[in-house]
Amino acid sequence: MKKVITYGTYDLFHQGHYNLLKRAKALGDYLIVGVTSDYFDKSRGKFNVHDDLMTRIENVKKTGFADQIVVEEYFGQKIDDIKKYGVDIFTVGSDWKGYFDYLNEYCKVVYLERTKGISSTQIRNEHSVRLGIVGNEMILDRFINEMKYVSGIEVVGAYASKDDVDSRYKSVQFQQFPQYNTYESLLDKVDAVYINAPLTQRNELIAAALEKGKHVLTEFPFGFNYQKAVEFIKTASEKGLVLMEGLKTAYCPAFGKMISLVKSGRIGKILSIEANFTQILGENLQNQVRIAGGSVASLGAYPLLAIFKLLGYDYKKVEFITHQENGIDTMTRMNFIYDGAIATSLVAINAKAEGSLTISGTKGYVYVPAPWWKTEYYELRYEDINKNSKFFYKFEGEGLRYEIVEFVRCIKETAEINLLLNHDNILAETKILSLFYEKNNVIKF
Ligand code: C2G
């Protein structure tokens, strides 16, 4: 019996996939189809697969060509599968020509002609979200680079209010998009906006976008006006619009997994959290102050995410111990007291400290080394070191692609937003910023 194996994602199953499977089956007597797991796809750079694994497996099954279906979970599995199942022929579409020649050592490799004019990416792009860029700050360059990894969204225009900031602090990619002289004229042309303008302008920009029925992805922090945040969330919910805060940690796969692990009780009851994020910005300090403000506004959103996700929003007390230079908070310690737990965070824009995250519990603790906000690795540690374990994940590029994928998914699925950084989180974060900037429980040193 001649055994054939082929692999794919089979997202948004189409004629190209069907033709490939039909021809693969015709190469032998028994066809094994490897369907990629969601995690494997992410690790090989496929971020916005639309269908979940079970749907993709079902679609392959429905063709009737597969005698056996396996899940592909890691690089190198093809070699293992070929040996394990006694495969005679490995086949894949001609878009991979040459790439899998190394498998010739284990079986025959056949590249089948790819069906022209159809692909999952093309289907995903058919109803692309038309995005307007608002603001031309440096973060935009990273955002645009990361957008290249996400399908289903395209920039149709850009707008930024005039200011006299030195151009070296501005985005170099902003100019490549069609320019709009007024924000209103850009809003007329888009489904959604990405707002990266300075924090002081964001409330007005968010309000106008929601008013016109546009989805909003805004840079962190969300703001420091709690009442405005309440209003925006209400408007977005009433109008069925996506309103998201772009804080990369909240969308990266490893951070979410770490939160779930801790929530599942592996370290017992959480008693303490220490989350730091410090930077020495040097000559970029004034620019950062212009865009966001001091240490709490610039960096507070990261530790607040960890604290709120793990201990909730119902803290009994919060205090801020802050150091000011020229009226700007350059280093601040935020202390939280909960019923039965404490949390502390050091944020700084002109000082450096260890930037780790430690979550302590009654059974053990989780240690996430710096930069924990780009979570790739963490350790579960116990009194008995034999019980310790280490967890590794991949954090792709600058990490912004994860939030862009989520933004597109939320818009397209019009589903209930079920993100780590949900509306409750946005409100809790905004509340902290407003307390701090209104000087509640603030001690200066
Ligand atoms: N295909 C095709 N014609 C198309 C589109 C896809 O023949 N118009 C083929 C691909 O060449 C591949 C299969 O259909 O053999 C599945 O394609 P994808 O779902 O895009 O999967 P892919 O990323 O190519 O995964 O380990 C996974 C494999 O390396 C291939």
Written description of the protein model:
- By secondary structure, the chain is of the alpha/beta class.
- 34% of the residues lie in helices and 26% in strands.
- It contains 16 helices and 19 strands.
- The protein has helices at residues 15-26, 38-43, 53-63, 77-85, 120-126, 139-147, 183-187, 199-211, 226-239, 248-251, 253-263, 285-291, 295-299, 301-311, 400-413, 423-437, and strands at 3-8, 30-36, 68-72, 89-93, 108-112, 129-134, 153-159, 192-195, 215-219, 243-246, 270-278, 317-325, 328-338, 341-348, 357-361, 364-368, 377-382, 389-392, 442-444.
- The strands form 3 sheets. It has a 9-stranded mixed sheet. It has a 5-stranded parallel sheet with strand order 3-2-1-4-5, with helices on both faces. Strands 7-6-8-9-10 form a 5-stranded parallel sheet, sandwiched between helices.
- Helix 8 packs parallel to helix 9 and helix 9 packs antiparallel against helix 16.
- The chain binds [cytidine-5'-phosphate] glycerylphosphoric acid ester.
- Residues 6-11, 16-17, 20, 36, 72, 92-93, 95-96, 114-115, 118-120 line the site of [cytidine-5'-phosphate] glycerylphosphoric acid ester.
- [cytidine-5'-phosphate] glycerylphosphoric acid ester is lined by residues 6-11, 16-17, 20, 36, 72, 92-93, 95-96, 114-115, 118-120.
By DSSP (H or I, 4+ residues per run), the number of helices equals 16
Question: What is the mean predicted local confidence, pLDDT?
Answer: 95
**Helix/sheet category:** alpha/beta
Number of strands: 19
Could you name the ranges where pLDDT drops below 50 across 5 or more consecutive residues?
none
Rg is 25 Å
Terminal residue distance? 79 Å
Strand order of the largest sheet: 18-17-16-15-11-14-13-12-19
> Percentage of helical residues?
25-40%
Name the shape in a single word.
globular
**Approximately how much beta-strand content do the residues carry?**
25-35%
Instruction: Tell me the major beta sheet.
Output: 9 strands, mixed
Query: What small molecules does the structure contain?
Result: [cytidine-5'-phosphate] glycerylphosphoric acid ester
